[in-house]
Amino acid sequence: MRKQHLSRSIRRLTLVYYKMSSSPLEKEFTGKTYLFGSNDSQLQSLKLEISDTLVTLHIRKASTDYALNFTTGEWYYSVTELPGPNLVPNKNIDVLRPFKVAGSYTWLDNNSAEFTLRYIESPHTETITCVFLNNKVGVSFKNVFSKPDDIKLIEGKSAEN
Amino acid sequence: MTKITKLLLLSLLVLLLTTCDNPKTDNSLPLSTPEAEGVSSAAVLAFVEAADKEANEIHSFMLLRHGNVIAEGWWKPYAPELKHTID
Predict the structure, then answer these.
(1) To pair with B21 at 20 to 30 A between CA atoms, which of A31, A36, A75, B3?
(2) Which residues in chain A are closer than 8 Å to B35, comparing Cβ atoms?
């Protein structure tokens, strides 16, 4: 009996993902391309797309486009060419390309969303926070290497203005 | 071809065939159960539950006793078929 309980418990192990959430304002933020000035993260643009429970964060970083996928209430598995935080020398990281990731997101409030991207062939996770306000957005990236002073809000403006 | 050369070639062939017959492709560790190795399942369960509730973040564990795997688990989204770098 205890052996069965152990097996069941092991099968159900899961790291906490964000619970289902939504924002009444999310449609206002979707489909808009936000542009950023020069910044340390080399973030050039960001666009949010929502399709049912799948959210895609389109980002342009260091002149390369990436589409990062997330869902809410579970993990969404996909791959990306965007390298995650790591200590692996550049020449060795290529064996992991494309990087397998699992994404989950939540709305922290009506205007703020948090996206967690786990690089599931590494110990690392990138957390992206977006605060939308009118036609502006503030974005921050956080991972295990980030010191509190390193986490800066990168401000962008809608390209439609 | 001398007898010694023929014998060496034959030995090499036998060695190659023997190696091919027993390819070392399965790197799995032998499996057992906690009780069979003298470990209480309840104690393992207590460890798993404590790790799940209290540890900051564990991606997987493998518990061996007497060279046998008696319990192993992966916290989703991590999974046994995935590679996992350690830095």
Answers:
(1) B3
(2) 3
CATH number of this structure's domain A17-158, picked from the four choices 2.40.10.10, 2.40.160.20, 2.40.128.20, 3.40.50.300: 2.40.128.20
Contact B45 A118 (CB under 8 A): no
Q: Digits of tens for pLDDT over chain A (161 positions)? A: 567 778 888 888 888 888 878 899 999 999 999 999 999 999 999 999 999 889 999 999 999 999 999 999 899 999 999 999 888 877 778 888 999 999 999 999 999 999 999 999 999 999 999 999 989 999 999 998 888 877 889 999 999 86
Instruction: Please state the three-class secondary structure of chain A as a single string.
Output: CHHHHHHHHHHCCECCCCCCCCCCCHHHHECCEEEECCCCCCEEEEEEEEECCEEEEEEEECCEEEEEEEECCCCEEEEECCCCCCCCCHHHHHHHCCEEEEEEEEECCCCEEEEEEEECCCCCEEEEEEEEECCEEEEEEECCCCCHHHCCCEEEEECCC
Compute the nearest-CA separation of B30 from chain A (Å).
Answer: 17
| Chain B neighbors of A14, CB-CB under 8 A | 75-77
ipTM of the predicted structure?
Answer: 0.85
